[in-house]
Structures are given as C-alpha cells and as structure tokens.
Amino acid sequence: MKKILALFIFLCFVIPSINAQTIRAKGGLNVNTISLRSPYGNESINNHIGFHLGGTIDIPIFEKLSIESGLLVSQKGFREVYSEEEFRYSPVYLDIPTVGKYKYELNNTFSVYGTLGIYLGFGIGGFTRKIDTFQGINSYKKPIIWGRSHYNADFKAADAGIILGGGIEFNVFQVGISHTIGVANISPYGMAGYKLANRVFSLSLGYKLSESN
User: CB pairs under 8 A, 24+ apart, for 174-178?
Assistant: First the structure.
C-alpha cells in the first residue's frame, strides 16, 4: 500500500511537467463483484452493474509509451441473494487511475493499446438496498456510511488496486476494456477476520477533447 501511494505521488509531480498531452472524456459500464474472506467461509456473492464517468489525460513518454491518468466517478458494489431477500450494495468512488500505456499504430487513424498500472479511490456516496422478495414489506434503501468503525460503518472509504486493460483507438474515439483488482481491505470488520476487496470489469468509450504536441 505504501509503495502504491509513493508511486502515485511521484507521478503527480512528473506528469504536469510534460507539455504534450491528449485529454479525453470517458464513460462506460462496470460489472462489479467483490473478493470476500470471512471467518465463516464464503457467502453468496453476485455481480452488480454500475457505471463510470470522468476524464483522462494521456501524456507521451517515448514513441509508443505514455502515461495515462485521470479522475473517474465509479459505481462499484455487489449483491447478496437469498431465498426470500436480496441485498444490493452500490458504493460510489472517486477513482484516480494511473497506468503505463503501450500503443501500436496500425495506420494513421487506427491503433491498439495495452495498459498496466494502479488506482487510488475514495468513497464519496452510494446506497445499500434490501429487497424483500417474499412479502415486499421489509424493503429499504439507505445511504452508505463510510468509516473505519465496525459499529456503524458499511465500508472503509480508502481503496486501491491494480489495473489491467487494453483497447483500440480510431479517429477521436477510444474503446477499451479493463479489469481492476482491489488490494485494499474495505471492510471495517478487518479485526474480526473479514476482508473485502473490489473487483471490477469495465467497458469504456472515450472521446478526444483536445490534443497538444
């Protein structure tokens, strides 16, 4: 965790000193789940659909290598489904991804790329929902409580992890896929042996807003 934070701080100082850059608006679909470890074994965890929306900056370092970073509002989460009820957890994070990007140009307008890097996230909102599938009278929806105390918090606010991805670029558009693997334990019940880590598969569409050389 400390190494990831140190790398992120280093990149924050290096990136602004470079003039050439490409700025994109970016949004898309998240297919979310979570890695769960508990003292009582595995629980029933299901995928949960979310979204991401924000902007990125792509700064070339060498001919085919660049660093891409940005700010993304990202809805993550998971579902627990039982015989008579369902729980949906939909936390919303502000994510700061920073990845190394290798791009290979096939012609003047079309290229393919791959990415590898890290992200830092901070919980900013979201909700939990219980759906009573038996009688429908005990359902509720409430805001997520962020914090470190297991007495009243749903999740810890700080998140971090690894990003793997790739995609294509053509004209002003970018289509990409990525897999983020959370390494931070976002459970406030860590002292009791629980570990929760976000897992997100994303499909993104980007649009080039500006480019400078």
Answer: 174/24, 174/26, 174/204, 174/205, 174/206, 174/207, 174/208, 175/204, 175/205, 175/206, 176/113, 176/115, 176/202, 176/203, 176/204, 176/206, 177/201, 177/202, 177/203, 177/204, 178/115, 178/202, 178/204
Q: Is the dihedral of CA 131, 179, 37, 75 positive or negative?
A: negative
CA distance 27 to 53: 4
Instruction: Assign a CATH topology to domain 2-212.
Output: Porin (2.40.160)
- Written as tens digits, the pLDDT of the chain (213 aa) is 454 455 555 555 555 555 568 999 999 999 999 988 877 766 668 899 999 999 999 999 988 999 999 999 999 999 888 878 888 999 999 999 999 999 999 988 899 999 999 999 999 999 999 887 667 667 888 999 998 876 788 999 999 999 999 999 999 999 999 999 999 999 988 777 788 999 999 999 999 998 776
Q: What residues does 201 pair with on adjacent strands?
A: 31, 179
CB 110 within 8 A of CB 169: yes
Q: What are the sequence ranges of the domains in the chain?
A: 2-212
* Closest of 117, 127, 189, 203 to residue 160, by C-alpha: 117
Query: 10 Å Cβ neighbour count for 174?
Result: 21
Question: Which residue in 197, 194, 191 sits closest to 37, CA to CA?
Answer: 194
